[in-house]
Amino acid sequence: MTKLLIIDDEPGIRKTLAAILEDEGYQVLTAEDAVIALDILRREPVAALFLDVLLPNMGGIEALERIRGEWPEVEVIVMSGHANVNMAVRAVKLGAFDFLEKPLSLDKVLTSCRNALTVRRLREENRNLKQNAPSKDELIGSSEAIQRIRERIIQAAASDARLLITGENGTGKELAARAVHRHSRRAGRAFVEVNCAAIPDALLESELFGHEKGAFTDAVTCRRGRFELASGGTLFLDEIGDMSLSAQAKVLRVIQEQRIERVGGEKTIETDVRIVAATNKDLEQECDRGRFRRDLYFRLNVIPINLPSLRERKEDIPVLLLYFLKERDAGNIVLAEEAAQFLTAYSWPGNVRELKNLAERILVMYNGDRIGLETVRDLLQEKPGFSEKKSGISFPGEVKNSGPNTIFNLNYTEAKAAFEKQYLEFQLAGHDRSVARTAEAIGIYPSNLHAKLKKYHIRTER
Fold first, then answer.
1. Residues 370, 405 contacting (CB under 8 angstroms)
2. For domain 153-306, which CATH number applies: 3.90.550.10, 2.60.40.420, 3.30.720.200, 3.40.50.300?
3. Of 34, 43, 269, 317, which one is least surrounded by beta carbons within 10 A?
């Protein structure tokens, strides 16, 4: 049943208005002043409210500002027996849906209420359509690696279990988090993102849990935190590995108790959010170094999803490039075979994000409909730090077969395995046979490197 709230200091008006609205099938709550009303709004999901201008303790206009700031989804109908044009204009500018003069007209009250609820419903439907519509930023590709990730996302989305998404920068961790939300039962509710690395530690607690007015110097109004804003939906904690230990302790407590307290507040607020965290760091190593709480790591790592780097899904590179180009209405662009080979051989340290930047560069710098080798090579060489020698690419030219025992006489799978083993042996020897330093140098996780060393029976002892 739709809940409405009436805020008026006159008992007669509260009683009469409540009776009219209850006859229409609404559930009606009442408050004699704005302070009581704000407390009700913290506890009850109100769809719309009627707000008198002249109230004790807190004026109606001040209350309107607070309500629009903390509960923007609630429609507010302002009422006044001392109305003037300036007051009405100010109320509407502050976000009021309508302004009614006292004495109230029954028809105007019901019409305004129905219209406000219709607008609210249309906004919710529009938001749901946007959230459930096919995303332009899907995880594109047909490689076995990305197909496994898609399957894991669908499986993970079916529950409310916490997720930890890991992977290098630019691999699409946010896209994976949004995909989990989009396929979950929470898809119609909010997806709220927090970049833990971008918010100073002193402000992170306020961002996550909100604050009461006067909690600190700049707290001039009451503010809801990200946990409250994500109520019923998904909270995405990006770059969780950069969160301070003190903030980690507070997040752990919220996960354990399922409730929060605003900064400067004493009231406990229940939370119903699904937490999805992401990081480009090896949190096991961070725990060993004392930089990340092990108990929080185990709380977050209920369902792990490790996104592959672009180096691990090279067959998707041409597909992704053409997708990014067509996404910008670039027409029927064709990628030459030698250009595709060049792009596939490149190491892509910036992963999909770097490939998307290349697509932007092509759109700006190139006007043709066939992308050749010279085009992609020239545009990639314009990137600072690129060199063909460093990337191991040498185009144009042919690789010479130097004898019957070279890898060029093996089939693709055998040649790939032979090269990978030789490459790993070389890199391990160059880093004093340290798995951690080798993994960091070549850009993969230590756990992945351990698995490859075990596969090829490569020793790690010095």
1. no
2. 3.40.50.300
3. 43
Q: What is the DSSP string of 119-164?
A: HHHHHHHHHHHHHHSPPTT-----SHHHHHHHHHHHHHHTS---EE
CATH class entry, domain 310-391:
mainly alpha
What's the burial of 429, exposed, middle or buried (CB within 10 Å: 0-12/13-18/19+)? exposed
Alpha-carbon torsion (279, 281, 285, 289), positive or negative: negative
Q: Which two tokens stand for residue 159?
A: 């529950």
Determine which helix (DSSP H) or strand (DSSP E) holds 75, and give its type and residue range. Answer: strand 75-80
Give the model's pLDDT for residue 367.
77
Distance CA 449, CA 451 (A): 5
Q: Rounded to 5 degrees, what are φ and ψ at 379?
A: -70, -35
The model's pLDDT over 421-434, given as tens digits with 9 standing for 90+, comes to 888 888 887 777 88
Pairing of strands 210-211, 223-224: antiparallel
Distance set, CA 425 to CA 72, 125, 277, 430, 460 (Å):
59, 57, 34, 9, 9
Domain pair 3-130 / 153-306, same fold: yes
What is the percentage of the chain residues whose pLDDT exceeds 90? 42
pTM for the full predicted model = 0.59
Q: Contact 261/220 with Cβ under 8 angstroms?
A: no
Q: Is the pLDDT of residue 20 over 80?
A: yes
| Superfamily of domain 3-130, CATH level 4 | Response regulator (3.40.50.2300)
Q: What is the pLDDT of residue 391?
A: 44
Q: Is the CB of residue 197 less than 8 Å from the CB of residue 244?
A: no
Could you tell me the end-to-end alpha-carbon distance of the chain, in angstroms, rounded to an integer?
71
Structure token digits, residue 399: 């690789």
Torsion of CA 147, 149, 155, 161, to 10 degrees: -170
| Spatial distance between the Cα atoms of 296 and 302, rounded to a whole number of angstroms | 11
Give the separation between CA 164 and CA 173, rounded to whole angstroms: 10
